[in-house]
């Protein structure tokens, strides 16, 4: 029997380049079903639900929705609120009074947990509700999923940035450190490896949160590369930690900001990059040492998107609506790699995705813990889409010297 | 009479996204002329000339040259060397022994000065040489030129970055500071204004090196915007100075690096952004304050280029070869706007372009000195090319509240 009622969709956590594809996937697919009376969007994630900040997306034009789909960041805005049970009860009250029977929440592992709790509350009180979590995160750290929507585009930005850095640092040599997002998982930083085309291309060194960052090893790595190539390009994850899991940023700098969850602030500051530059300058005799912190550009830059990521983000939204409206089931939509390269989507139990995070597996990191493996490259390559730019070099023969023979 | 001999081309200063278009313009055009016996490229700018590091571009394939043209950064590499008269004499010796009769140098105002001196030396010693300067700089600060090749693409990157930042900060509100390159000229920072589409879009404030940066005014500007919109997006030029022309970075921070010319290091560090964040946090009661320093990404990012900039960079290279080889004259190729939008190229006397720099004219900066004018927007718009991405928003009607009436 068809459950008649309204659909509600919301977006949580950090924005990505393709999170609006999932939103539009849910909206356009839901609007086709006769049992759906309205499709609402909640502004500001879950906080917009408890405040009843809804917009009626049934009255949005398909044309504008398509335009929004290709716009990065969360069109319904977002929130960092992590709802507890009390918070979820309020959510549920609002869903009930508005006759919402289908709830879709696009976000990371915290959002999956929100969906899990809301779903439990509904079952307990006998209120029939379909609740589906739709994956997104540039960190690529959701369990069960082969990869997460949002990762491919952010990875493409990071790879393109390092391609450009390779050219820039070849032109004016020195040491360059690019600090990439990723508190616990190194997937995004690792994407920098895709910038390597020619044998001396960087990044020559890649440091991930999955392996301890030892200052002495770092310095000797940099020295070796610089002596070999006369330049050294380094990708560093903002979340690198020492042997005791202490973030390097806390260890090296006295004054750090913490967020409401007690996490050290990693983005929106150039501190880690500047500290690593200082260490190199103080210990190695290298003059030109520079760092950039990719910051918010890597997750919000307009005009750098992976086509594959775009399609998949759209499909997880569509599939979420289909699971709920055709099959009358709850869960988290997950992406599974079925071939090279093909994917399919499943509905996974929420408790298998909620809260937990995935790290880079061992076979993706080299033995020395300062770069990635070929297996990682093979894993990532299809996710970047077909239109990756390429760097090209002059191959003309050298001319014989006449004055300085 | 046709002057028979070799062509030499080199690239100087900071790389741009389209500097290789000019290189390839020179090479392909020069190769058509019967009096050209070889087309050489000097590696590492002028320093490669005195060291005779030449490659024979006559033996490079057209296909690979076309691929290089669309690759950012200097394919022949670059140098920060600023040659004096002694240095130029060495250059000239090398040109002579290799039978080089045509010299093309792609670069900014320092490179124009190099060409000027080499040209003078040649005339004095009676060695017949055509020497042409080809403009490039993301700073857009060359005199005589309406604008400079390289600026349009960097401006496009900055505008696209702020478009994304607008979406990101709308989604998770706060104060955001983006630090943009530009030591003396604010053109690149000003390009951020093109990100404004909707009435509350940022950047709400733009600080340029052309106007003194007064901390009290800055704080009151930020406060006003934040109270009005609940968010504040700021574009700041790395080169902002106080009333006494002291760089803010030097004033606020004790420990700064200086380069070989005594210039304070502005890029490759997040210091200025972090300092401005600190000032806001200490003085205004705003919790979420973030900064990014766009750094090297803005001049080297692969995959963000203005089509107009690309064509013009190619044409200045081609025209340079034509001026030297058809007309047998020296000078600097300059771009002139002839319509809305059309350009033409002239050959300008080197001393009118060498050394000097252009700042943002008064009619491009608003009265309060914290934003740009409509005239600036009209000036910049065509330079970004036809394919600027667009941000889109949901316009669906709000739903009436039921619980929290």
UniProtKB/TrEMBL annotation, chains A, B:
<keyword id="KW-0460">Magnesium</keyword>
<dbReference type="GO" id="GO:0003872">
    <property type="term" value="F:6-phosphofructokinase activity"/>
</dbReference>
<comment type="similarity">
    <text>Belongs to the phosphofructokinase type A (PFKA) family. PPi-dependent PFK group II subfamily. Clade 'B2' sub-subfamily.</text>
</comment>
<comment type="subunit">
    <text>Homodimer.</text>
</comment>
<feature type="binding site">
    <location>
        <begin position="137"/>
        <end position="139"/>
    </location>
    <ligand>
        <name>substrate</name>
    </ligand>
</feature>
<keyword id="KW-0808">Transferase</keyword>
<keyword id="KW-0418">Kinase</keyword>
<feature type="binding site">
    <location>
        <position position="238"/>
    </location>
    <ligand>
        <name>substrate</name>
    </ligand>
</feature>
<feature type="site" description="Important for catalytic activity and substrate specificity; stabilizes the transition state when the phosphoryl donor is PPi; prevents ATP from binding by mimicking the alpha-phosphate group of ATP">
    <location>
        <position position="110"/>
    </location>
</feature>
<feature type="site" description="Important for catalytic activity; stabilizes the transition state when the phosphoryl donor is PPi">
    <location>
        <position position="136"/>
    </location>
</feature>
<feature type="active site" description="Proton acceptor">
    <location>
        <position position="139"/>
    </location>
</feature>
<dbReference type="GO" id="GO:0046872">
    <property type="term" value="F:metal ion binding"/>
</dbReference>
<dbReference type="GO" id="GO:0005737">
    <property type="term" value="C:cytoplasm"/>
</dbReference>
<dbReference type="GO" id="GO:0047334">
    <property type="term" value="F:diphosphate-fructose-6-phosphate 1-phosphotransferase activity"/>
</dbReference>
<feature type="binding site">
    <location>
        <position position="109"/>
    </location>
    <ligand>
        <name>Mg(2+)</name>
    </ligand>
</feature>
<dbReference type="InterPro" id="IPR050929">
    <property type="entry name" value="PFKA"/>
</dbReference>
<dbReference type="InterPro" id="IPR022953">
    <property type="entry name" value="ATP_PFK"/>
</dbReference>
<dbReference type="InterPro" id="IPR000023">
    <property type="entry name" value="Phosphofructokinase_dom"/>
</dbReference>
<comment type="function">
    <text>Catalyzes the phosphorylation of D-fructose 6-phosphate, the first committing step of glycolysis. Uses inorganic phosphate (PPi) as phosphoryl donor instead of ATP like common ATP-dependent phosphofructokinases (ATP-PFKs), which renders the reaction reversible, and can thus function both in glycolysis and gluconeogenesis. Consistently, PPi-PFK can replace the enzymes of both the forward (ATP-PFK) and reverse (fructose-bisphosphatase (FBPase)) reactions.</text>
</comment>
<keyword id="KW-0324">Glycolysis</keyword>
<keyword id="KW-0479">Metal-binding</keyword>
<feature type="domain" description="Phosphofructokinase">
    <location>
        <begin position="6"/>
        <end position="323"/>
    </location>
</feature>
<protein>
    <recommendedName>
        <fullName>Pyrophosphate--fructose 6-phosphate 1-phosphotransferase</fullName>
        <ecNumber>2.7.1.90</ecNumber>
    </recommendedName>
</protein>
<keyword id="KW-0963">Cytoplasm</keyword>
<feature type="binding site">
    <location>
        <position position="14"/>
    </location>
    <ligand>
        <name>diphosphate</name>
    </ligand>
</feature>
<feature type="binding site">
    <location>
        <begin position="181"/>
        <end position="183"/>
    </location>
    <ligand>
        <name>substrate</name>
    </ligand>
</feature>
<feature type="binding site">
    <location>
        <begin position="296"/>
        <end position="299"/>
    </location>
    <ligand>
        <name>substrate</name>
    </ligand>
</feature>
<comment type="pathway">
    <text>Carbohydrate degradation; glycolysis; D-glyceraldehyde 3-phosphate and glycerone phosphate from D-glucose: step 3/4.</text>
</comment>
<dbReference type="InterPro" id="IPR011404">
    <property type="entry name" value="PPi-PFK"/>
</dbReference>
<dbReference type="Pfam" id="PF00365">
    <property type="entry name" value="PFK"/>
</dbReference>
<dbReference type="GO" id="GO:0006002">
    <property type="term" value="P:fructose 6-phosphate metabolic process"/>
</dbReference>
<dbReference type="InterPro" id="IPR035966">
    <property type="entry name" value="PKF_sf"/>
</dbReference>
